Structure formats: C-alpha cells, structure tokens
Amino acid sequence: MRSLVEGVAQAIADLRIVDPSQWALRLGALAALLLAAALVTGMAPFGSPQAVLLTLVVLLLGLLQTARPDADAGLVAFCVLVIAVVIAGPLGAGATLALAALLMVSHALWALAASVPAHGVVRRGALAATVRRALPALGIGLVAGAGLLALAGAGAAVPAWLMIPGVVAVVVLLVLLLPRDGAPPAPRDPTAPRDPAA
Amino acid sequence: MSGSAQPRVPSGGVRTPAGPPLRLRPTPAHTRAVVAGGGAGAIAVLAGRPDLLVVVLPLLVWALLAHAALLLRAGAPGPMAEPAPVLRLGTDRLPEGGTVRASVHVAPGTVAGVVLPPRAHAYTTPRYATAADADAVSLSLTVRRWGNYRIGPVHVQVADAAGAFRAQSVLGPLDLQVTPDSPILEAPVDVPSVIGISGAHISRRRGPGTALADVRPFQAGDRLHRINWRVTSRTGTMHTNATFSEQDTDVLLVTDTLVDIPPLPSAPPESPSSLDVTVRASAAVARHYLAAGDRVALHDLGHLIGPVRAGTGPRQLRVLTDALSRATREIGSGRAVRLRTVRTGTLTVVFSPLLSEPVIAQVGDLVAQGADVIVVDPLPLSVGDASALHGRPERRPDGRASDRFWAEAWVMRRLLREQIVRELRERGVPVTAWEGPASLAPVVLSLMAAGSAPRIRRS
User: Fold this and answer.
1) Domain that holds residue B175
2) Are the C-beta atoms of residues B136 and A139 closer than 8 Å to each other?
3) Both B431 and B410 in a single domain?
4) Where is this region: Disordered (chain B) (predicted)?
5) Measured between beta carbons, which residues in chain A are less than 8 angstroms from residue B57?
6) Which A positions 111-130 lie with beta carbon below 8 A of chain B?
7) pLDDT in tens, A6-23
C-alpha cells in the first residue's frame, strides 16, 4: 500500500514539473488524434459498440504517445484509424481531407515535443521552425489529395495494369524513406579515449 | 536544415572547441510517417481506395521534404552529417550573486534541445535548465555562492526543423570562477601601528605630511613653503608648520580553513557556513585596506586557500579574490600550517571559529610577536544557539527520533569556547562575530584604544 501511495505521489510530482509549453504540444496532439477518431466514427464516437471501441483504443494509444512522444503507440494509432477507414468505407471528400490534416497536426506536434524532455521549455523559435516545415507539407498534401479525390469522383478508374507498377512504386518509396539505422546512439562520453580509426 | 552552415557564435566569453560533425539518424517521427504512409499507400493501391492515400499523403510529403532539405542544404559537412554544436559562456569570472548566460549554438535552421545538469547554489532560468529553440538555446545561470563551478557537461539534441532527423552530443564542461562578495566596510582605515614608508595613515612621528602637528620656530633645513606667515607676522619671528608623517602598514589575513561548520537545518535557506563567512569577510577586509594603500597578505592555516604574498593596489585585490574563490570545500588532514614570524605592528585579522588548539596557539604566537591581532568569529549564529532548544529530540526524515543531539552538543561547545574568548579578550585580543559591513569598525577603534591598556600576564 505504501509503495502504491509513493508511486502515485511520484507520478503527481512528475506531472507538476511538466512545462506548460509541453502540455500545450502534447495535449494538442492528443486532441487532434481524438478528433480524427471522431471523424472516422462519423462524429459519433459513442454511437455504436464499434465506435466506442475505436475511440477507447485510440484514446489509450494517444495517452501512451503523449507520455512518450518517441514511442510507437502513435504509429499503432495511425494504423488503427486507417484500418477503421478501410472497414467503414470512404468518408467523403471534406472528412477525408480533414482527417489527413488532423493526423498531420498531431504528428508534427509530437515530433516537436520529442525534441526536449517533458520539463523543458519549447520556445517560439522551435515552434516557428516546425510550423515553417509542416505547413508546406500539409498544403501540398491537401492540394494533391483534393486533386486525387476529384479525379476519383469524376469516375477516373485506375487501370488494372497500373496495379503492379503502383505497388512497386510504393515499395520503392518505402525502401528509400525507411530508416536504415536503429535508435539514435547514446550520448558520447567526452572522457572516453577516441578511436583514431573512427 | 536548409542553408545549413557552421553555428554562428558571438565573440567574447569562453566557448568549447569545435568538435567533429555529428551523424544524423532518422527519428521515430520519421518512422511513423514512412510506415503509416507506405502501408496505407500500399493498401490504397491494392484495394483501389484513393481516399486512403489522401489520408496519409501529408505525412509522405513531410518525409520527402525532410529528405530533400537534408540533401539540398548548403555548407553541410556531408549528406547525413551536421556541424557540431558549440557551448558558450558569457564570461568565465563572475561576482557572487551574478548571472551568466550559457548558450548552445547550432547550425542555422536547426532545432536544438539542451539539458544542463543542476549545480548546488546555482539557479537557472528556465527553472530546470532544459529548453529547445532554433539556431541557439540560451539559459541564464545565477550563482549564489563563491567558488569554482564546472558548467556542464551539457547534453544537446540537434534535429532538423521537421524533427525527422536528429543527432546527440555532449558539450563541455566549461569552468566558471565566482569571486566572493566583498561589501564595503563601514569602518575607518585607521590602524593601531604604522610601519611602512608612505601611505594614508597618520603616524605619531613628525615628518612630511598633511596633518598639522605643531607650529614651531623656523629651523635650518625647514622647507620654505611650510612657513606660517600669519604666526610669523604676529610674533615677529619666523615660524613653520610641523606635520605628522603618513605611512602605510602591513595587514595580514589569517584564515582558519581547517573546519567548515554548516548552519543548522533550521536556519534560513542559503545561510552561510563558517567557511563562507571566512571567505567573504576576508575579501571585504582586504578590499578595505587595499583601497587605503596598505599592503595586504593572506595566510591559510588549512590547505584550501593557500598563502598569498603581500601586495598593494587593485591587482592584489584580484589576486586575493582569485585565491579565495579557488578554495574548495574538501576538508584536509586537519594539520595546521603554522605562521612562523610576523612583523611587529602588523595588523593581523584572524578569521577562525576558535575550535582547535593549533589555531588558538597560533593567535598567541602572533600576539607574542607584537602583531595587533583581531579575531573575527565566523561560526554561524544558529550553531550553539540555546534558544533553539525545545527539550525534544530532533526527528529524522523517516519520522523517527534521532539519537544524535547535535544542537545540544553545539550549545555545550559554544559555552566551552566562551572561556577561550574571554581569555583572549583579557590579553587584549578583541574577538568579534562577523555580522556584516559594520562588524569591524568598533573592533578597530577598540584595538587602537587597547594598545596602551594593561594586559594580564601569566607569571
């Protein structure tokens, strides 16, 4: 019982030292993810058992990602939402673009929150640099996406013979963009002797 | 990281040397974007669902733009390399209570996250010394206590603006010297004995000076500009002004660094220990007499500060404050470094809590050699304060009663010490507690008055 109380007290103490800028980034990312889940459920997150399940799973994964922005829980949450869209069927042009924007916003905010520990201050310069990089990606993605949806809506069907090159293109893109190395290395010990061959 | 180049570091201050370039690695955010985007894209193609591709298209574009920025940046040391960050301190020497800016500079267009380890008696802004910013991250460090500080090592995480690639580095440490606070003493610069050649103190001898001693008849050899024409015209005989000569003196600071007595836990935060008071009071007294043109030296009975030879002027003040600020808090072997000889008439200020026999014996030696000795007591006032006792044992952090009675023991020790203080005063050695800039004035004046007072001699 005593260890439980101490654990809770330690958790409260850890929450108290989180900087307000970190609260804003992480809760903003979580809010965007939850709003994306609501979009997938047709703005009825508790309208059906499936919607409730989806909302709770995304909420849990979002909380894990909020606590540790470098974790893979956010990736699982993205995959859950994509699978939900596959099962539920097309959402409509506006909802699809909004979903894309919300996922991008949560992704960018978590990426910035991971730049410093939770008790660290994220200053305006860092936020401005992130916005300058994220906005063009969002704009290009939404414009291209709107064009793609317009083509699909006009009845332009993808020929069957494009399937194989299309899959190959996706695989090549994956190979090009996927990270080749593991997690960043541990900080180098400045007192350790340097390897002259390195 | 578009337009990446070397970090722009302002001139001045001290900085770490430029290190080798850092190797960039993809971040978990990059992995999320690529895996989610690639997976959804593959499903979109296989299932003929363009809406799935639209959902993840911004993420894929984000990852592509990050790669493109990495490859197209100018001035970079390599496609996956980033110039090493640089740690800079605004200054390497600071007065007690001063503030210095510590900044980490990275390549333009890059975001840096910085973690500075905490140091005792040093307060940072922001509070936990952790921040992220673009191009340069600045932290303010306010140091409350004298000494040598090592700022760092600083942990730095360098990332592109999107957060798709990052590298880590450790910088420093850099040394920062904090000199003790030396308040201006509210005391006269008078000394009991003057033993130098020329200075600011009026001696009892007649000689060249500015203080009028007498008006006497003119004698052969007297300076013509000293003739007192008013008395001459009234008496009809040539008279001249006689003056007291002005001399300087030797001031010797003797510090007892054999022990460092901390204040009781019940004392206010940042209360000084005996070593803190010793260092600050020494600096204040040195500054006071160096400003008057006297020669000031320092002898350390312990091994923390080291001896400083006599000197004058602002340079000597800097030498003394440097020596005082270099003192560490490691208590040595406890064997006193005795001072063998001292010039008769030297004003000797001994900073000691008078807790060890060798120090008390040293005070006796100094008096026997003819020095004018003042003892300044740096023992914290909270230590041995009987009014703080409440008849109940102290509580440990776990709530149990402590079996150590430090407060009571110190009360008894202070009572025992009172006998030593009384004996010293009976021998003409003033003992005063250091209570700030006004501490020394009454003591100096009483020492001058006690110079001719009878003293108890042991038969």
Assistant:
1) 14-25+75-179
2) no
3) yes
4) 1-27
5) 100, 141-142, 144-145, 148
6) 111-112, 114-117, 119-123, 125-126, 128-130
7) 888 888 888 888 999 999
